[in-house]
């Protein structure tokens, strides 16, 4: 029995460690990069979040006569959530507001990615803010899942 319990705890620890080390959470999208970005922006605004910027890296690359597959970053957030996180660890401000990356890979598959809040917790040694991090993780997951939800 002790052996089984020990094995179970070891498995739990390894799973937790692996998930904490994943810096990006990636979701596959059935839409084009632009449509995925449009959907994400619309959903974020509908949920009352501020969309601070939308950066089209492909367009910027074309402006200097370079090619890049579709790649966009949307910067968004809400100071009511970001501020308490910075009160726990001010240096997390380097990673705020939140961002999502929407890109088309070499196989023409579109991905929506965002920073794993658990990674940010570890990166910035955030303590005492688990409730805020859980809320952020929930919002990121909900918005992202809705943006890539099937047709």
Structure in words:
The protein is an alpha+beta fold and 151 residues long. The chain has one domain (23-147): TT1751-like domain (TATA-Binding Protein). It has six helices and five strands; from the N terminus they run H-E-H-E-H-E-H-E-E-H-H. The protein is globular. 20% of the residues are buried. It comes from Oceanisphaera psychrotolerans. Residues 55-117 form the DUF302 domain. Keywords: Signal. Residues 1-20 form the signal peptide.
Number of strands: 5
Q: In CATH terms, what is the architecture?
A: 2-Layer Sandwich
Distance between the termini: 48 Å
Q: Helix content range of the residues, please?
A: 40-55%
Order of helices and strands: HEHEHEHEEHH
Low-pLDDT residue intervals, each spanning 5 or more residues: 1-19
Q: Report the biggest beta sheet as strand number plus sense, adding barrel if it closes.
A: 5 strands, antiparallel
Number of domains: 1
Would you tell me the structural class of the helices and strands? alpha+beta
Radius of gyration: 18 Å
Strand content: 15-25%
CATH fold-level name: TATA-Binding Protein
**What is the mean predicted local confidence, pLDDT?**
89
Question: What is the overall number of helices?
Answer: 6
Considering the protein shown, what is the CATH homologous superfamily? Answer: TT1751-like domain
Strand order of the largest sheet: 1-5-4-3-2
Give the C-level CATH assignment.
Alpha Beta
Shape verdict: globular
Protein name: DUF302 domain-containing protein
Pfam families: DUF302
Keywords: Signal
Signal peptide: 1-20
């Amino acid at each position: 029995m002790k052996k089984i319990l020990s094995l179970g705890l070891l498995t739990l620890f390894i799973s937790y460690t692996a998930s904490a080390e994943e810096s990006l959470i990636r979701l596959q999208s059935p839409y084009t990069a632009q449509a995925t970005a449009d959907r994400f922006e619309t959903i974020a605004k509908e949920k009352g979040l501020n969309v601070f910027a939308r950066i089209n890296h492909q367009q910027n690359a074309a402006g200097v006569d370079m090619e890049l597959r579709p790649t966009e970053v949307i910067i968004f957030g809400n100071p009511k959530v970001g501020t308490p996180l910075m009160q726990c660890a001010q240096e997390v401000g380097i990673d705020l507001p939140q961002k999502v990356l929407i890109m088309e890979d070499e196989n023409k598959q579109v991905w929506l990615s965002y920073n794993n809040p658990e990674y940010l917790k570890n990166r910035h040694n955030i303590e005492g803010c688990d409730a805020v991090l859980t809320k952020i993780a929930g919002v990121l997951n909900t918005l992202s899942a809705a943006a890539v939800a099937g047709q």
